[in-house]
Specification:
Structural class: alpha/beta
Strand order of the largest sheet: 3-2-1-4-5-7-11
CATH architecture: 3-Layer(aba) Sandwich
CATH class: Alpha Beta
CATH topology: Rossmann fold
Shape: globular
Order of helices and strands: HEHEHEHEHEEHHEEHEEHEEHEEHHH
Number of helices: 13
CATH superfamily: NAD(P)-binding Rossmann-like Domain
Number of domains: 1
């Protein structure tokens, strides 16, 4: 695809792009970003009539340029039907689970997506991986910089029951190999723990992660570090990777790496009226240090990262507005 056709699409052209898992936390923002850039968008869902997908129909531009169709990654023909007439496919759909069955399902589903896209003449695919496929390696030096060349240790993930990481590793490898075999241009976005505003009504895994610390329902936090990024940055990364004709390979989508103590301190500073988790699990080990990372490739796409403090603040306010969190005033906090 020429750079001029990408430019035309981003300025209100008539390209059709399909987003799998359109109703999810990341998928919804990818749909929103595409619509704002003038694309026609076709989303997939296993049950388009489910009320949990209703928010997609109210997005700006959805009435004119969005359709939601039924498709399942394990149903090859349903994918072909969804991809018919599409210039691009952004394969976002992925359950967050440690189910042992997830690995073969993720692999088969990803292979189906790539082959269906190739069979329908799709010109470009963007695949959503996870930093679970990148950072889970106990042998990585603490001084090493985490970047696109890094992979998690599969046996370590399997041994420690991090089967979601195993699934994302195998799915990404499958996507890369299948796309190469079919001559299909592929870019891979690798997001980490994703925070920020919710478009959907249901509470997703990472938002619940924040809510549990804010309300103190998680009694203690681990002596561990994690990487965070705003959901809008992840959505933009997908679209930028799609729009850049030369974009290939992995793009690490990390805004910051913090110890869990820093995360809860940030929540306590932003919302002092809440009973934020205050105790660290005493594992007898020295305090884990945040590792170095590089998001240079993503920045080269034109991506700028949202500060985590802004992302957390907006996430909490959004959860309050949607009824996922109680609104607590400073005065009420003194009686808790």
């Amino acid at each position: 695809m020429s750079s001029s056709s990408y430019s035309k699409a981003s300025n209100g052209g008539e390209q059709m792009v399909c987003v799998t898992g359109a109703g999810g936390f990341i998928g919804s923002w990818v749909v929103k970003e595409l619509l704002l850039r003038g694309y026609r968008v076709r989303g997939t869902a296993r049950d388009p009539a489910d009320s949990k997908n209703a928010h997609l129909l109210s997005l700006e531009g959805a009435k004119e340029r969005f359709t939601l169709c039924r498709a399942d990654v394990l149903d090859y023909e349903s994918l072909r039907a969804a991809f018919t007439g599409c210039h691009g496919v952004l394969h976002v759909a992925s359950p967050v689970s440690n189910d042992p069955e997830l690995v073969p399902v993720a692999v088969e589903g990803t292979r189906n997506v790539i082959n269906a896209a190739a069979d329908e003449g799709v010109r470009r695919v963007v695949f959503t991986s996870s930093y679970g496929a990148v950072h889970m390696d106990p042998n990585r030096s603490p001084d090493a910089v985490l970047d696109e060349t890094c992979w998690s240790d599969y046996e370590f993930c399997e041994r420690t029951n991090n089967l979601y990481c195993c699934a994302k590793m195998m799915a990404e490898i499958t996507a890369t190999e299948a796309a190469a075999a079919r001559g299909l241009p592929l870019a891979v976005v690798v997001p980490c723990v994703t925070t920020g505003l919710l478009l959907q009504q249901t509470l997703n895994f990472s938002s619940n992660h924040v809510a549990r610390y804010l309300m103190g329902t998680k009694r203690s936090y681990p002596n561990a570090v994690a990487a965070y990024v705003d959901v809008r940055d992840v959505a933009r990364a997908h679209v930028l990777a799609y729009e850049r004709p030369g974009a290939r390979g992995r793009y690490l989508c990390i805004g910051t790496v913090l110890h869990r103590a820093q995360l809860v301190a940030m929540l306590r500073e932003l919302f002092p009226q809440y009973p934020v988790t205050a105790k660290c699990e005493d594992d007898g080990k020295p305090m884990a240090k945040p590792y170095k990372f590089s998001n240079q490739r993503a920045r080269e796409l034109g991506l700028e990262f949202t500060p985590l403090k802004k992302s957390l603040y907006e996430a909490v306010v959004c959860m309050q507005q949607n009824g996922h969190l109680p609104v607590i005033s400073q005065q009420q906090r003194s009686y808790l």
